[in-house]
Design goal:
Elements: H1 3-8, H2 35-38, E1 41-42, E2 49-50, E3 67-68, E4 75-76
Antiparallel strand pairs: 1-2, 3-4
């Protein structure tokens, strides 16, 4: 192997026995905590995943049960600060 081949890592060899070790291949993104995929609940406070039956976050202790709006009674999404039905603050 010549000096330039060692310097360039042998990327331009005529044998075609490798193609840059796959550094140009499309990679899939790293997995993330998606409640739809795993069936868990994501804490709105610390983003830790908990089991679907959990009532409180195992990391920070925040409540994980959905709340009802005090003004109109509609069930609010977990972590909501305002009601999507009447607009009142949670």
């Amino acid at each position: 192997m010549s000096f330039f081949e060692r310097l360039l890592g042998g990327h331009h060899r005529s044998g075609g026995d490798h193609h840059g070790n796959g550094h140009h291949q499309k990679r899939t993104p790293a997995s993330y905590n998606d409640p739809g995929v795993s069936g868990g609940i994501i804490c709105p406070n610390c983003r830790t995943q908990s089991s679907p039956q959990a009532r409180f976050c195992q990391q920070c202790g925040s409540g994980l049960a959905p709340q009802a709006c005090n003004a109109c009674g509609v069930q609010m999404a977990l972590g909501s600060r305002f009601c999507s039905n009447c607009g009142k603050s949670a």
